[in-house]
Amino acid sequence: MPPPAAHPARLRIVIAEDAAIMRDGLTQTLARRGHDVVAAVADAEALRQAVDTHRPDVAIIDVRMPPTHTDEGLRAAQSIHRDHPQVGVLVFSQYIEAQSATDLFAGAAGGVGYLLKDRVADVSDFIDAISRVAAGGTVLDPEVVRQLLSVGRRADALAVLTPREREVLALIAQGRSNTAIADTFTISPRVVEKHVASIFAKLGMPPSHNDNRRVLAAIKYLES
Amino acid sequence: MLTAAARLRDHPMLLDGVLAVLLFAISFGQWPASPSASLAAAVVVSAVLAATVLVRRHHPVAAFTAAMTIAATQILFGMQLAVTGPPVRALEPTATDVVIPVLLYTVAAHRPRRVSVTALVSCLVATAVAITRWAPAQVPGQSNLLFIAAAGLGGTAVAAWVLGDSMAYRYRREYYASLEERTARAEAERDAQIRIAAAAQRASELQQRRTLAIDESAARLRRIERDLHDGAQVRLAALAMTLGEIKEALDAAPAGTADGDRTRMLVSAAHQNAKETLAELRDLARGIHPPVLDRGLGPALSSLAETSPVPAELAITSTQPPSPAIASIAYFCAAELLANVAKHSAASRATISVTDQADRLLMTVTDDGVGGARLAPGGGLAGLLDRVQTVDGRLSVTSPPGGPTVVAVELPRHA
């Protein structure tokens, strides 16, 4: 099967996942989709070495790995992002903790993703997310968004936004493009652009580099 | 009269004093009238004899010996057949000599039998000697008088001894009885103490076992969650990924045959099922042991506060971490209490605080809602109380109508 036209770039990928079945499964799937898995490792230390050696486009990192099986992956992702800003980090986890997402996204200008492990089931969407992170975008699991949205105090910081603007912002935080957002709400891209401009204005972000403002808005959303 | 007798019984020294006076008084008229030196000496002898009863209770043998010495002197020097010629008038036996059987009685009652028998024998010997000294002066042929005197004196001595000895027997019996009673009481007390010590030992053993069981159970839950995470969950995710790939491959292939459509449908259903099972398994594992607890109670509560529907603030001043089992109980309490706040309180804010209180952990969840929360049997709070009590914890609810509601959970730092 030829790779979908949406992500033709051949990505160089490092995988850190301690469960062999998932590590091998991901490696094979990504290879079938035309990507290079340059290293597949089982713990955070090996991950750091692999990233230092290969400088991949993106590292896919399991949160829980030996030795403590708590949040090694998360901390490794943060340090990789600090040391190698050009390497995208996609953290995936059996569980979603809003706190972990906030930790991960705080201070990150882009190239960061946080997904539930279940998302591998929808292979194309998952690979699409990898591509977006590799390209410097942000990817946030809808589950995190759902958890944060269920918290009443989101309204405090983002009260200035209309309900539709908040929905649009939630999708921006997930790294969606304007076109994708327009498709989701079945509205025209021009209307989406109007919403986005209004969001930036209301959140006090001056018109500069467009992508950067999207990331800033997403971070504001997460930290609010 | 009765009260006087009772008073005398209660005050033995008073009784002996009265006795001494009486013993002295009964010699009145038996002392020589002249010369005055003899009278004075006789009075002194009677007084000393009578006085021996005053010390009989503390020194019965000494009192008896003193009285007997005086009596022997009287027998030797004061009788008709005196050793040194004519009898000394001042040393004539008097009625005060009745003190001897009284003292013999005392010795027999309060001293070992060999002592009292010696005393009795000395009395009888003295009696015999006295009678041999007294008899020759009597009218011959009046042997019955002699017999009466011997029987009277000897009989009195023997009677006094028998009476005293029987008292001694009674005292001994009472003493043994009281000894037995004291022994029995001491044994009962010792038994009770042994039972108390055994119960305390058992309580401490049970507590240790409970601690082991609780820690074991917490560790086992953690292990089950870990096994699910590393086993079933990851395998199912890999399976879902494979199904996803098959589904996408089938979707990309040209549609056409009925069989192909049917396969596509089945794979799609299997893919959907796998994803739903993953979500269910995740909730199940999280209910067994929230993985965030592995990072400690603080981060776990922080994650709870983060996703609480009612904005919740977290204030942790506790510096000593509880055992994993206790952390788990505290976490589930906080989760349930925050859920209650969201469901019932109509509050706009909640606060979770965790402080150290001696060797215990105090967690309070406060909200500014409508109040009126109650620890009703079968209710959610009662369920929490049950859980907290398994480790000797306490839970209290303060929730007046109109609020605020404060639920305080106190837990030992170790189960």
**What sequence of helices (H) and strands (E) makes up the elements of chain A?**
EHEHEHEHEHEHHHHHH
Residue share in helix of chain A: 40-55%
Strand content of chain B: 5-15%
**Number of beta-strand segments of chain A:** 6
Structural class of chain A: alpha/beta
Report the end-to-end length of chain B measured between terminal Cα atoms.
74 Å
Your description of this structure?
The complex is a heterodimer of chains A (224) and B (415). Chain A is α/β, with parallel strands linked by helices and 224 residues long. Chain A folds into two domains: 12-139, Response regulator (Rossmann fold), CATH 3.40.50.2300; 151-223, Winged helix-like DNA-binding domain superfamily/Winged helix DNA-binding domain (Arc Repressor Mutant, subunit A, Orthogonal Bundle), CATH 1.10.10.10. Chain A contains eleven helices and six strands. Chain A has a six-stranded parallel beta sheet, with helices on both faces. In chain A, β3 (58-62), α3 (72-83) and β4 form a beta-alpha-beta unit. The radius of gyration of chain A is 17 Å and the shape is globular. Chain A starts with 11 loop residues before the first strand and ends with a helix. Mean pLDDT of chain A is 82; it is low at 1-7. Chain B is α+β, with helices and mostly antiparallel strands and 415 residues long. Chain B folds into three domains: 2-181, no CATH class; 231-288; 295-412, Heat Shock Protein 90 (2-Layer Sandwich). In chain B, 66% of the residues lie in helices and 8% in strands. Chain B has helices at 2-10, 12-25, 36-51, 60-77, 99-110, 113-134, 143-230, 232-252, 258-288, 297-306, 324-345, 380-389; strands spanning 312-316, 350-357, 360-367, 394-398, 405-412. Chain B has a five-stranded mixed beta sheet with strand order 1-2-3-5-4. In chain B, β1 (312-316), α11 and β2 form a beta-alpha-beta unit. Chain B is rod-shaped. The model of chain B has no long low-confidence stretch (mean pLDDT 89). The interface between A and B is large, with 34 and 38 residues.
